[in-house]
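Sample entry (77 residues):
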Amino acid sequence: MAKSDITGKRKMSAQNVSHSNIKTKRWQHANIQSRRVWVPELGRFVTLNLTTRDIRTIDKIGISTYAKRYGVKLTRI
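Predicted structure, serialized as tokens:
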């Protein structure tokens, strides 16, 4: 199952709505990408499954701050 390693975001249930307002179930998938992220504290790259929003935030505030925000220790991954 596709899931973000840091935030835990995964697919959500949603509905298709037709012109006649008939609703049918469907899945909304998160945009999960596999990325190698440099972790300065470890001195190496770590491969993570991240959403595109995660990637943008990591570029802005850094991987260590972002992982700490969600209570994730990067040594376990």
